[in-house]
User: Fold these one by one.
Assistant:
Number 1:
Amino acid sequence: MNCFKLSKVMPAGLVFPFDFGFIPNTKGEDGDPLDIIVISEIVSFPGCCMDCRIIGAIKALQTERDGKTVRNDRFLGVPVVSQLFANIHDLEDLPEGIITQIENFFKNYNAQAGKQFQVTERVKSTAATQMIQNGS
């Protein structure tokens, strides 16, 4: 059966700042498909597929509860059909506050799960697209 299986729930009071998903047919160092935050006015649903333009990435190291550290980047995309974010083509086009809030969300989210999320670099759209093509 092709479906999504619930593996964990969000800590009480915590919500993703934007839709969070994965880039199909990719694999990150953690063994999962590459993660993407979809910056948009669109409210989607589990299983919804969207064509997005990649506007950048947040390179990060994630330390698991067992002490193992893996690279676990977060890509940022905007749906090509977005009207509100139609002029966003690169990370630099977003207000600094939005990027900082996204980074802080992942730090807090991981901390509540007993993990550490350390941002190592912000990457512009061209380099982020190349990372995806190279398998991150």
Note: The radius of gyration is 15 Å.
Number 2:
Amino acid sequence: MKTTLLRAVDRYILINDKNSPAPQPVHHSAVSKTKDSISYKNISGVVLEKLSSEPIAYCSVSLEGTAIGTITNSNGKFLLRVPDSLNVEKLHVSHIGYESQRIPLTILENGSSNIYLSQRIIPLQEVIFRLVNPRKIVKEALDARDHLYLDKPSYFTSFYREGIERKKDLLKLTEAIFKVYKQSYTHSTADQVKLLKMRKITNNAVKDSLVLKMKAGVEASLMLDLMKNIPDYLEINDKNIYDYTKIDMTEIDSRMAHVISFEQRKGITEPYLRGKLYIDAENSALLSAELEVHPSYIEKAEELFVEKRGKNVKNSPSANSIFRIL
């Protein structure tokens, strides 16, 4: 007869096979060392929707009280490489529209674990029907830039990561720490970056048969500041090629937000972006954005992402390539 052991961790109950090896503390699992003799531990898991058990992509996963974090991939998986000397007890997992979770790290001590998020239900005390103009909401978000965003330059430190994968194998990984000098939102001069520290990791066990250079890098990351580098889908004028639809209301960090969907108009066949804009219902601040190349024209979008390729190399973006800006 199979015997199981129950163990309480915080408000969770862990079920273990009696014959399975005893769990080890998390600071002893998956420990590696760098050239600087700094020990690290790997924290991994899978984030799933509680009712359907479907993976939740692009969840924010971070160590509570630190700047260390990542997001889940399209399969809901994540991996954090954490300094072993860091004294952290909780993992914070969140996603727009879901109840966030604070998970004890001891839950993940035996390797990858499933983390379930429940959809967040926002109770409404009263129902008000009103005519909403989504184009007007987007225009108000842009008009609010002058008084919501910095009018003076600022300094901050930023972490940068860029990786190349092929068939789930990591080919290359670049990580760096930058000091960023950010101009004010009314200043046309580009932001400046100073490199503080960088490292590169190459997987020599996996041979890369493709010769391809993607349009990426630090400058591309800085351009994702939509309020400073205003994209065409935020400019509401006669030349605008997008249709806008108000599709929902949601809550982000205890603030109500309009969810505005935008998509290029019918008859326009060039590969433009489509997505969702999350705009604060009270002060019109742009809280978040989800973007993707229109799937119907994905084959034409190669030149948007590829800077240089080898001879006879063909490549096209995935139809499931979605990225989020917070």
Note: The mean pLDDT is 78.
Number 3:
Amino acid sequence: MQPSKVVSQEEWIAARRALLEKEKVHMRAGDALAAERRALPWVKVDKAYVFDTESGPKSLAELFDGASQLIVHHLMYAPDWSAACPGCTFQAEHIDGPAPHLEQHDVRVIAVSSAPLEKLLAYRARMGWRFAWVSPRGGDFNRDFKVTFTADEVAKGRIDYNFGTIETDPRYVERELPGVSVFYKEEAGEVFHTYSTYARGLDALLGANHYLDIAPEGRNNGAYPNWPRRRDEYDLAAAPAHG
């Protein structure tokens, strides 16, 4: 890390005020973007998805568990992996903390992964998480929401990820990829898909990254190889790419 220029308190306040004006512009632009996000049209979900849960098979509508809004974390955990990928594990670390507060806003947050339920629950216990984690039991859910791809698609080196904006980037040509999808359930029980985000769109939900953004070094990932890791692997020399 290269140290910044050292100045007087008065000079620092002047520089900070100048940056604050830019931060305010950025924040207001973010508010406007959030309003546009909420104004997106919806798509009715007509397909009958079924998920394996701790309390037995459930439909997508039943996953709301009394809420009207459902946020689904698509976590990368293929059926033959022994663990979820480290990056998605990092993503999952940001679910339990906000969850009780989101419930007071009529929002439920869960995770869906391709691996069988018993693997998901064992890994959840290993990580000490509490959120509901369900499996689509080999159905079309992950395919339809563009986070699971076939071996043929991967072999061809071309997939449809992030609404077709990422097709051949080798970082994203994988069988499983991360994302978040959002749904709304009306009183009559009809479910609508309202939003999805992928790739760097997920960064807005990763609070640890934003803590780093206000620290002197910033994210500086080059100085911290194999970061992030699973929380119980930081003392190891290296962490596997995934299961």
Note: The first strand starts at residue 43 and ends at 44.
Number 4:
Amino acid sequence: MAAALFVFLLLRLAVPAQQPAPQLQERGGAAAPHVEAVQPLNDFQRSQMESWAHDFADLHRYRAANQELGDPVSGEHRVVFFGDSITDNWTLNQYFPDKHYINRGISGQTTSQMLLRFRQDVIHLDPDVVVILAGTNDIAGNTGPISIEDIEANITSMAELARAHDIALVLASVTPVNNYTPASQRFFADRPPSEILRLNEWMKAYCASTNCYYLDYFNAMVDGSGLMKHALTEDGLHPNDAGYKIMAPLAESAIDKRMASR
């Protein structure tokens, strides 16, 4: 499956964009259908192509750590935080001391990659709860263009896998972004706030109709303009210490509620 996805990415991403060719005339004067030019790779995609060719989902990142971790011990309430750079950058033992919380975030990842490693980095660890924070990099097109519907399908597949293995699910909203500093301009341009809202609305409705908990980081971090509060981030995307201090009690409350419902 990973190989097939990578071949798709190569075909979708690696071909340089061409100027649209003049439309050819078919018999009777009708124009042939116009084929949209393939978009060129962005800087992030170019930097990742060699790594993706060897391990698209970055399965090697946590393979050894997972083996060393072993099975949960008696009385351990294991929780996996699963996500992208916002999770990867989160020093969990600093914000959740004395908790058995395991970080399985990988910077830059999309739900397509996370779905491929869900079995290794979540199911095989036998947690009580998984907290999934994903979607911002899909909206940005990190692994190529993807519709909101396909992002939803990837998240749904992870949710169904969690339920099939008796893992309680906490599904976190995509966090807001802003464009208040020069450093934030690049991230903001790739992540339209309207798309974040659309995906979050679907997540909230999905959790309301299934056995999962919707963890609403967005409304706790957004300002009156619909963007991330200036004080919570340096680059407009990734939370700083103040941002994580808002997220941590929300996450802990969600985990406690899911634990109590088991």
Note: The two ends are 33 Å apart (CA to CA).
